[in-house]
Amino acid sequence: xxxxxxxxxxxxxxxxxxxxxxxxxxxxxxxxxxxxxxxxxxxxxxxxxxxxxxxxxxxxxxxxxxxxxxxxxxxxxxxxxxxxxxxxxxxxxxxxxxxxxxxxxxxxxxxxxxxxxxxxxxxxxxxxxxxxxxxxxxxxxxxxxxxxxxxxxxxxxxxxxxxxxxxxxxxxxxxxxxxxxxxxxxxxxxxxxxxxxxxxxxxxxxxxxxxxxxxxxxxxxxxxxxxxxxxxxxxxxxxxxxxxxxxxxxxxxxxxxxxxxxxxxxxxxxxxxxxxxxxxxxxxxxxxxxxxxxxxxxxxxxxxxxxxxxxxxxxxxxxxxxxxxxxxxxxxxxxxxxxxxxxxxxxxxxxxxxxxxxxxxxxxxxxxxxxxxxxxxxxxxxxxxxxxx
Length: 389
What we know:
Blueprint: E1 8-10, E2 16-18, H1 29-43, H2 55-65, H3 70-83, H4 87-92, H5 95-102, H6 109-125, H7 133-137, H8 144-155, H9 164-174, H10 183-195, H11 202-215, H12 234-238, E3 254-262, E4 264-265, E5 268-273, E6 285-286, E7 289-291, H13 298-310, E8 314-327, E9 330-341, E10 354-358, H14 370-379, H15 385-388
Parallel strand pairs: 3-9
Antiparallel strand pairs: 1-2, 3-7, 4-5, 5-6, 5-10, 8-9
């Protein structure tokens, strides 16, 4: 359906050949829209943010769903909405509380942007959700995807969205061999997403495309026989489901070695808060931590970290625990090194913005990165607790 006669040809071997940029034949769009929406009406998952058209719930869910699976998001969404049931509740909350509720979802910049945007909407619009793309475009953390997702679902604005599932579905429907993640392919897929939208039920259609990609038109072994629009799919007609869209180039994994320093004051541990402009985990709490430099041992790194970031002199001791954690393309290994302070010196912050002595019972009150939480879980396993606290 997606190829004009000039765009498809037969090679010497008799097999179909696609030109890079297919032409969308609008005459075939009405049945595609009709079949897909009918399938969505009877087959969509009963997700908690689909219960109504509440723009707040839709917005929170879409921010959480960026780079995170639906299965992982549902329990976080329910806890978050229980704590912050309205935009006013979110705007009035302390950022540390917001980060604690986000803890475990990763990509914490999303939470800070969501919080800042809620405050802006309350301060400037009384907590209402304007049906205006220009307003949303100015909110922290709102790009083209979030703007289209919220306004199309909440207000049925005819705005497109493209994410990992929909870019795959659109590429297959129209037989595009371009890479939809960058360059001309990215421009094409956004144009296609806008072209296919119906005049009514745009939000439902956007959700239906994503749902189809999640449940049927999967990256590997798509269930084409179960697809409601299989007769309108160019990739299926040409047998190219396995190569459309082209696989994303795999980025090399970068190994990162870090040290976190365990400093005690009686039965308490020293925790520090990262600065708001940190590359990762801004405003989150942690044991004093940094990357191990070239030709530096873990004990040497522990001494340097405490001196540079806290102005203290320490003697490094034994390795207490080690954990590994992946962040995007980084494979991070964090080793906890125990250290003893020289008496008489006070903390002088040179990197962190705050510090606290925390006992075992209060550690859970501080928002931490997943890697730091993993490290604490390892340090507080039975048999270690007595020594640590």
